[in-house]
Amino acid sequence: MVGPMASNRGVDPSIIHYCELFESIQGEGATAGIPAVFLRLTGCNLDCVYCDTRYAQRRTAGDEANATVTTTALAAELNGRRLRRLILTGGEPLLQRDGLSHLGSALAEDWTIEVETNGTLCPTPSLLSRVAAWNVSPKLPSAGIPPNQAVVPEVLSILRDSQRAWLKLVVSRPSDLISGDALIAELSWPAERVVWMAEGTTVDQLVERGRWVAEAAVVRGQRFTTRLHVLLWSGQRGR
Ligand code: SF4
Questions:
Q1: How far apart are CA 159 and CA 35, in angstroms?
Q2: Distance 89 CA to ligand 1 centre (A)
Q3: Would 123 disulfide with which of 30, 101, 127, 194, CB 3.0-4.6 Å?
Q4: Which of 97, 77, 99 is nearest to 16 (CA)?
Q5: Which ligand 1 atom sits nearest the alpha carbon of residue 54?
Q6: Quick check: 134 and 166 in contact, CB under 8 A?
Q7: pTM value?
């Protein structure tokens, strides 16, 4: 596993491993509904029980999830597009943080970049400053990740201090709300930068869980999000 603060030793920073590149709307979080280009990078350092992008977890030779592109070619392709918002997702994009730093530098300045991360790996300084919105989802107990792997306070503190990070807490069961409250307090995370989200991969799950998660968000005076891509397209790939 790559350490949270170390550089990507052994990873070629001129190459990006990815499995999807598509245009859609942001489905979750504070910027939900905004049209964007999505780049889904391959590889993850966690294995959550509810992961809905398992096809992006591994980089296996010959696997469809093992497409590669140079950062230079990718930036040229993206710079030719009409949209100017890029969402880097995965998998865990920061496993390829050096490549993403190169990509961020090669993109035209009018690109707005968001990153979806599990908050266990620290971005490079140049990537930290280039990204406009960090959507950070440290895993709560229902994800099934040991706490010492799920929560890396030194990384979360760096992202919090960027003042461009949202703490997106994914809730599967009511006890996650208590765990999320404890994490917010432990990190001294600003309440206006918290987003509660119901976990779900079906419309029925999102509606049932979304009702009590939304009520819990109201009680706390904090933001709620659903998952528009699941409601609209049932989580179909490329949406
Ligand atoms: S961190 Fe995200 S991509 Fe990785 S296993 Fe968990 S849900 Fe899946």
A1: 24
A2: 10
A3: 127
A4: 99
A5: 8
A6: yes
A7: 0.94
pLDDT in tens, the chain (239 residues): 456 766 566 678 899 999 999 999 999 999 999 999 999 999 999 999 999 999 998 766 566 667 999 999 999 999 999 999 999 999 999 999 999 999 999 999 999 999 999 999 999 999 999 999 999 999 999 999 999 999 999 999 999 999 999 999 999 999 999 999 999 999 999 999 999 999 999 999 999 999 999 999 999 999 999 999 999 998 788 88
How many angstroms does the Cα of residue 185 sit away from the middle of ligand 1?
24
Q: Which residue, judged by its Cα, is nearest atom 6 of ligand 1?
A: 48
Closest residue to atom 5 of ligand 1, CA basis: 47
Q: Give the separation between CA 169 and CA 177, rounded to whole angstroms.
A: 9
Coil, helix or strand at residue 135: strand
Instruction: Supply the DSSP symbol for 17.
Output: E
Beta strands 85-89 and 35-41, pairing class: parallel
Please give the single-letter amino acid code of residue 202: T
